[in-house]
Specification:
Length: 82
Amino acid sequence: MATDQLVGFGLVTFSLVLFVYYTLWIIVLPFIDSDHGIHQYFLPREYAVIIPVAAGLLLLLFIGVFIMFVMWKSRKHAKKSD
């Protein structure tokens, strides 16, 4: 029980940190001078589009593979029962 809560807390914390980092990167950073030292902690701006697109494509790939696997297993199980 405590392990589940710890994993859940870790996931929520990771999501919050990622959200704050991305928000600062996309919304706040353009208004700060480019020679300011804070820019060294952020990736170049083109990655702000590339990373979410790649993550979305990977998510769609995993969802498609999961659906294909479930349909393949259910079809295999239906043939056994016939």
